[in-house]
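This entry is retained here.
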Amino acid sequence: MNKTTFGRQHFILTKEHLRFEEFADACEQYRYIGLCYGKPGVGKSFSAWHYARWEVFKHYKLIDELDEKLEEGIKNCKAIYYSAPVANTPKRIAEYFDLHLLKFGNALAKVEGKANPTGLLREARYQCPLVIVDESDCLSYKSLEQLRHLYDEYGFGLILIGMPGFEKRLARYPQLYSRVGFAHEFRPLSADEMEFIFERNWQNLGLELDRNQFSDVEALKTIARVTNGNFRLIHRIFTQINRIQQINKFQRITQEVVLAARNCLVIGQA
């Protein structure tokens, strides 16, 4: 799921996101390295993107004058968010953070009304409280070492997000692993959360979920079984349900509609 998709989706506050917030706040407060890992599609990236409040700030340029929207975005930004590319190198990572740490500190200086924010270039890079690196399992050993160097140099908290097993791989790198203070497993949605989200999706489709209707309850249980608490998969299957509903002018979501939607998707092992 790309970051443009995040912007189009309505964020739903889940228990897992609240746990992620507590974890991220601790990494920021104590300036530790934190490891976040979980199965694909459970919502790690979406939660990190929402927590960082990076959407407005990422477009900021050093020469920009502040308007109300930009100033509000800078004030709300809690972290630099970086999604590691597959083709990553230590040089590429160093260049990205050299620029964005500078931008972050420069923007804060402008918001705080400091007389000459562009004259505080060296100090600016030390103002960022937290860096979140998504897709961290793509990083090579040398790229991870570059991140460790930046972490030591600038003193920010650091969150590395990856797939299950990523935390065990990092244990092979003692210089980095010895700085890890927290680990957080991002788990799938609970049954109660799934029901809450399903009901909202029913409403978004212009329908009302009636628990006294067997077909509605049957469809609900089928979606729960197919998606198994996977946030991304829930979004994808309701997109297909909406498409099938519009094509066929259905007024209810039934088990047959859900299974037809499921057959339109490529679903791997969760």
About this structure: The radius of gyration is 21 Å. The beta strands are 33-37, 80-83, 130-134, 157-162, 180-185. The chain has two domains: 3-185, 191-263.
